[in-house]
Write a structure and sequence with these properties.
Elements: E1 30-38, H1 44-53, H2 55-63, E2 69-75, E3 85-91, H3 94-106, H4 113-116, E4 119-132, E5 135-138, E6 141-149, H5 154-164, H6 166-175, E7 180-188, E8 195-202, H7 205-221, H8 223-232, E9 233-250
Antiparallel strand pairs: 1-3, 1-4, 2-3, 2-9, 4-7, 5-9, 6-8, 6-9, 7-8
Length: about 250
């Protein structure tokens, strides 16, 4: 869920949350709180130990329905001064995210030097296009991309995404190739309007190759979809990300 990932990313799809009119096929909104840190390399082990120490608390928040899922990750494509680690938590309302944050902020690990000395970014996202397999995993990969949809192009962008790519993604979830995917906009904006972010998770490196091939095949079968998405987005600000998942739970 970082803000950068694989080029199979014409999908940067998540604009659905920004549509002013409700689609009859829309799912209820899911809110995703993303935290990222730029951790000095010498503190990586301590930082990841803190994540492990908070797992029981996060599992409790999923069990009592406060959260619908959570995960932690580290960035595999490092850039100077940018995030090295991150986490996400998902809920059906902003209030439930806030409730979970209250527990996280009260945890002893929040005062750890690995946290207090790191640069930090937070994002509140929302999505109405998503799917996941229930369960818990360690390892795996989180990948995705971020794009900016051209002014006035959000409806067309969403229409193309929903008609050409979402059915393929749902099928990959059903078959177990994907553990989850989502397409998001910012709920509380810190970036430009029209910014869309998509992500997906897989259990292992073979899953990355399978998803990449699925995207290639989809655009080979329907090249106009790729051209349409390209015409509706700006190359300015495009970023890809590829992260290693430490732990992940989906309700």
């Amino acid at each position: 869920m970082r803000k950068h990932t694989l080029c199979v990313s014409l999908l940067a799809l998540s604009s659905i949350g920004a549509l002013p009119a409700q689609d009859n096929n829309e799912k209820p909104p899911i809110y995703v709180y993303v935290s990222e840190w730029a951790v000095p390399r010498a503190e990586w082990a301590a930082f990841e130990k803190n994540d492990a120490a908070e797992k029981a608390m996060m599992d409790k928040l999923v069990a009592n329905k406060t959260l619908t899922g959570y995960g932690t990750f580290s960035n595999l494509i490092h850039q100077e001064g940018e995030p090295t680690h991150g986490s996400w938590m998902m809920a059906t309302s902003e209030g439930r995210i806030a409730k979970a944050l209250e527990m996280v902020m009260a945890a002893p690990t929040v005062a750890s030097p690995a946290l207090t000395t790191a640069k930090h970014w937070d994002y509140m996202m929302v999505s109405r296009t998503y799917n996941s397999r229930p369960g818990s995993w360690t390892g795996g990969y989180l990948a995705g991309a971020q794009w900016v949809v051209n002014p006035g192009g959000m409806r067309d962008y969403t229409r193309v995404v929903k008609s050409t790519l979402v059915p393929m993604l749902d099928q990959l979830v059903t078959h177990g190739t994907l553990l989850s995917y989502g397409m998001m906009t910012e709920d509380f904006h810190t970036g430009p309007m029209g910014k869309v972010t998509y992500y997906y998770t897989v259990a292992d490196s073979d899953g990355l190759d399978k998803v990449s091939k699925a995207f290639d095949d989809a655009f080979d079968r329907n090249p106009t979809a790729g051209m349409s998405l390209n015409s509706l987005t700006s190359r300015e600000g495009h970023r890809d990300f590829l992260d290693r998942v430490h732990t992940m739970t989906n309700q």
